[in-house]
Amino acid sequence: MPSSSERSAKNFLAGAYLDRRSELREDPRWLESARSDAETLFLPARGTALGVTGEPPTAAFVDRSHALVRSSSDDAWVLLGWFRERRCVLVQLDDQAPLADSHDETLRFEELRPLAGTLDAEEAGLLAYARALAFWQKRHQHCGVCGSPTQPTRAGHRSEEHTSEPPVTVR
Question: What is the pTM of this model?
Answer without folding.
Answer: 0.85
